[in-house]
Amino acid sequence: MAVSASEIKATYPLPVYNFRVEIGPNAVAFSEVSGLSIHYEVTTFKESQTGGGSAGPRIIHMPSQPQPVNVTLKKGVARSASVAALYSWIKTVTLNQVEKKDVVIRLCDEQGKPVISWTVINAFPTKLDGPAFDAKSNEVAVESLELRADAITMTEA
C-alpha cells in the first residue's frame, strides 16, 4: 500500500537537527538544547481503610508542586555578538539585577517552518561554561549555558 506525501508529513517524526532558539527578541544559533522537561513532585497520602476486609492504609499518590526547569544550551564559539550577549546576560546575575527572559525553542519542518514550540518561561542563566582547550584536537570550541526557569509550555504552530 502506497503512502501519500501528506500522510508522511502528518505522521512521520520530525528530525531533531532543524530547530531555532530565540532568547527574548534575538535568535541565537545553538547546536544542542537539552532539559526541556515538565515534571511535578509526587505527594503520598495514606488513608485508613474502614471495613471492606483490606488491612492497612490505602496509599494514594498525587501530583503536587511543579519542579523548576533546568535547560542547557550549547553552541560553537563564533565571532559574533552572541558571545557578548550571553556573557552580558549572565553578568546581570553578578550585579544582582537578574534579567529573566522567555526562551523559545522551535522545532521546524524541512522548509524551516516551526511545527512545535517550547517556551521556557522566566529563564535566567545560572552557569556559562567556556570551551575546553586541547592543542592536540581540532574540534570546534563549544560553550554551554545553563538556565533555570519557572515553567515550560508547548504549542503547535
Automatic annotation (TrEMBL):
InterPro entries: CHP02241, Phage_T4_Gp19. One of its GO terms (molecular function) is structural molecule activity. Pfam families: Phage_T4_gp19. Coiled coil: none annotated. PANTHER family: CONSERVED HYPOTHETICAL PHAGE TAIL PROTEIN. This is Phage tail protein. It comes from Bradyrhizobium oligotrophicum S58.
